[in-house]
UniProtKB/TrEMBL annotation:
Its EC number is 1.15.1.1. Its cofactor is Mn(2+). Belongs to the iron/manganese superoxide dismutase family. SUPFAM superfamilies: Fe,Mn superoxide dismutase (SOD), C-terminal domain. It comes from Larix gmelinii. This is superoxide dismutase. GO terms for cellular component: mitochondrial matrix.
């Protein structure tokens, strides 16, 4: 939630990694939004960490398949099943994806990222 820091952009090591690997925070958001909008049916769009390469990746998974099946540790996940957004956004998934960033918990993602890259 916003009152608990939701939507505040990342800082520190995660922000630097996003800038290095994607060019900007807006670029990773656009990539995740595009991936989520393009996903047919139900599934998830993720910002994941390849622990071996210490590299961030945007991936999608179908249905309830976890990101770990692609060898990545989830940092952020966006549920793009209709149940996640239908009551507020009807069938307009791109509007949901545009607005989910207002409550995204980057602080939690940063904690996981820093723990994994600096064990």
């Amino acid at each position: 939630p916003v009152k608990e820091g939701g939507g505040e952009p990342p800082k520190g090591a995660l922000a630097k990694a996003i800038d290095t690997q994607f060019g900007s925070l807006n670029a990773v958001i656009e990539k995740m939004n595009a991936g989520g909008a393009a996903l047919q049916g139900s599934g998830w769009v993720w910002l994941g960490l390849n622990k071996d390469l210490k590299s961030l990746m945007v991936e999608t998974t179908q249905n309830q398949d976890p990101l770990l099946t692609k060898g990545l540790l989830p940092l952020l996940g966006i549920d793009v099943w209709e149940h996640a957004y239908y009551l507020q956004y009807k069938n307009v998934r791109p509007d949901y994806l545009k607005n989910i960033w207002k409550v995204m918990n980057w602080k939690y993602a940063e904690e996981i990222f820093e723990k994994e890259i600096n064990p």
